[in-house]
């Protein structure tokens, strides 16, 4: 007897997790499977921004920008521990874009969407020696957008879905799906074992694999073409003191961000290039490294070489093919393709999308599926707080409360916990009252109590899950430290398996 769900979702990135949360909160029974870890591909390889997309105005994508601008405000309220305002500075280069054009774009950016918490744009002047920019940059423009922990945004949406009854299974491959007797029958594989489920509707949110899944696992033809566009970033030591980001114009008409990252680093990216390889193995190319270094060195006083790079990451954006000649100009808007015929179970495939607009994409997906679920509850996610935002007063207040509760805990770990978990930190801490009750310290403030919490509540399995996507401590951990963590996780998994058998 196979379990029957209302909705099965393939893909544990931001779109899959967002749709799962929305659907589960409307009363649907939901199953989501992800072949790797949550947010393990495109959704954790972003520029870590919740932004309207200032440069999309040049491509006349006003609908997308308006929606994204409004969503900045929504997400600031839904997840104040993960989404934070930041000022962005654009040094002016008259030969690339005239001042009047930038002023006009920023005026539209200020007023196209609702803006309640964020400051408007203004002209700024750079004074040496205080400015981190080279002397030829004398003025620029400053405006507001937001930063986000992208992978954690995915995780908290999966948590919200789970808390509304959804079944979330990571490391689970969907081998095939077939329409049979009015429902979808999915064949899955987890830990070498085959299992089957049924679903009244199927959502394909496989990201870079969206078209491949349709062709290979469903034996159907995709409704739209897809273009894979690679975006890469480099992480370097902190380039400048102030906590503002820079948006750097380049001679190819593209822009590159330099963003303060984790207090110690500067994040520089992104690139745009066609990608034809395996999305599982995407990595930065030497040409991309040189491109990002050249843009940075053309702007900042502090010179960078490849030897300064601490880490890199790359992702593949699955964009709907609009036949643009320029990868940077391919639309970032999303397209939803509904495949259904009389008396057959529906298939909804997600093409494209942005981290910023995931919630609106989920609402649009549920709107398309509404005819198949007559008793579907209305929209609810706009005002619903994400896990960790409940009873959230402020960053400083929560940090003070944690420091008071856990005697001897260092300030760095307190801040990391606040920004990662928000008020869910109390579920992590449990009854602990001092640092000595947090268990084994794996290094850099990662204690066994936190690891156990991530395994139990956030689907973490490996050291990579924890260090790269849950805590961002991978930049500080050595190979040996990570191996010690993996050994602990293996022992913990074996203990849990024995306990379940018993």
TrEMBL record:
Domain of life from the UniProt record: Bacteria
UniProt organism field: Acinetobacter cumulans
Catalyzed reactions per annotation: a quinone + sn-glycerol 3-phosphate = dihydroxyacetone phosphate + a quinol
Record key words, sorted: FAD, Flavoprotein, Oxidoreductase
MF terms (GO), sorted A to Z: glycerol-3-phosphate dehydrogenase (quinone) activity
Residues of the FAD dependent oxidoreductase domain: 6-323
Cofactor needs: FAD
Pfam families, sorted: DAO, DAO_C
Enzyme class: oxidoreductase
Domain Alpha-glycerophosphate oxidase C-terminal stretches: 381-475
Protein name: Glycerol-3-phosphate dehydrogenase
Chaperone recorded as keyword: no
